Amino acid sequence: MACRIIPSIPALRANRLKITTPFLQHRHLLVSLRTELVAVRHFAVAVKSTYKRDKPHFNIGTIGHVDHGKTTLTSAITKILAEKKHAIFKRYEEIDSAPEEQSRGITINAAHLEYETDKCHYGHVDCPGHADYIKNMITGTSQVDGAILVVAATEGVMPQTREHLVLAKQIGVTQILVFLNKIDEADKEMVELVETEVRELLGEFGFDADGTPVIAGSALCALQDTKPEIGRERVEELLNAADEYLKLPTRELDKPFLFPVEHVYSIKGRGTVVTGKLLRGKLKRGDAFEMIGFGSKVKGTVTGVETYHKTVDVGEAGDQLGLLIKGVDKEAVRRGIVLVPPSSGFKEQSRFEARTYFLKPEEGGQSKPIANLFNDVAYSLTWNRPVILQIPGKDLVMPGEDAEIIINTTVPVFVEPQQRFTLRSSTQTIATGIVTKLLGDVPPEIADKKLKKKAMRENIEKLGFNPYSEQLGRRLRARYGGASGSG
């Protein structure tokens, strides 16, 4: 390998690497490119900054319909606060960084970043608005304490505006700010009309319709430093509203830690890293853990804790964390698994009772009734799995009804009483609910596909119409013969 002189100190500084005294003392020993790269990488890691917990922490997210300006607003916030040294400016393309996001101009994965005001440190989640990526939106929203609903004044309330509010409420978000965006493209009368429409929608879903701060402005003007009266000044007004209106949630710091895994990475030379929001308790380097969910029996140890690429001595409930874990291969971890203390008593579940509300069509739900043994997909914490619904004592549940149901998952997952979940069918959110009782394993009459399909056939004959999908009805008729209503 050819020898190479170490780059100059100014060159290294230009690459934003901090140079330590040991590095300077031993730079003459760097005689090859490989040695140089290893040394630079080692010392760059060694001097990573430490997170200082000197302000209250609040998790906030941008939600709303696709193309209404959530990511533009997020970028504008970082630009304005970066000038006060309260953030690192993130350009639009740095937030929507995946190739597909850039090519399609939409957010697909929830993006995480941080900034602070004079009063508060914020963890910000920019949630995808496109209907095709609603599962990523659910995961992103589950990690926030409050949300900024972004609505374009040029379009007003749209399908994902409604759905995002439903999902935010289901997850337990009670605090909302509203940013009416793109007012530079709408007349005053239109802006006022959209504000009225949004306040009515907030009231419809149980939010504070009259007291919720609504700020009208242009995120693009703020980002481009044009028309400050509707750009920069309105974004600053939004940040002031966040400081004053949003109340800090109570953190469960004294309980055993619970860490749902959102993403898993393998970092060469360091090991496996998992990221997510610590829901309760505290986590620090050296803590042992076990994994729950998807049949996992893996145990390991936390060897490093970071938040937004800064080391942290102790992660606390509410923190967005990256955990370096020892004793666990990347292939053994997946999104939806949770980390808990060893011998915590938690067990994965495949069956549970739940108090559930089925949405009406005007709330974004479906118009057809939901039948016993209906197939859906459940979303909770960071997991989503196909499920089979049972409705004890009833044949059907109508949209708009509350019902006690039993949910059977296709694989065991982490569930506990009072845990919230969402049910979706195809591209619709059809229900939201809260777990009330754990029931253990799925019974044979549900687990056995043949027995289940026979029971569904009996339901079709009893009801006189097909409450399931027409495609499924055709399969059942082909298998068992006879005719049934199409429903």
From TrEMBL:
Single GO term (MF): translation elongation factor activity
Protein name, as recorded: Elongation factor Tu, mitochondrial
InterPro entries in UniProt: EF-Tu_GTP-bd, EF-Tu_GTPase, EFTu-like_2, EFTU_2, G_TR_CS, P-loop_NTPase, Small_GTP-bd, T_Tr_GTP-bd_dom
Protein family: Belongs to the TRAFAC class translation factor GTPase superfamily. Classic translation factor GTPase family. EF-Tu/EF-1A subfamily.
Gene3D superfamilies, A to Z: P-loop containing nucleotide triphosphate hydrolases, Translation factors
Cellular-component GO terms for this entry: mitochondrion
Catalytic activity as recorded in UniProt: GTP + H2O = GDP + phosphate + H(+)
Pfam families, per database record: GTP_EFTU, GTP_EFTU_D2, GTP_EFTU_D3
Complex formation: Monomer.
Record EC number: 3.6.5.3
Hydrolase as UniProt keyword: yes
The Tr-type G domain, residue ranges: 55-250
Entry superkingdom: Eukaryota
Top-level class of the enzyme under EC nomenclature: hydrolase
GO biological process, one term: mitochondrial translational elongation
Location of the protein in the cell: Mitochondrion
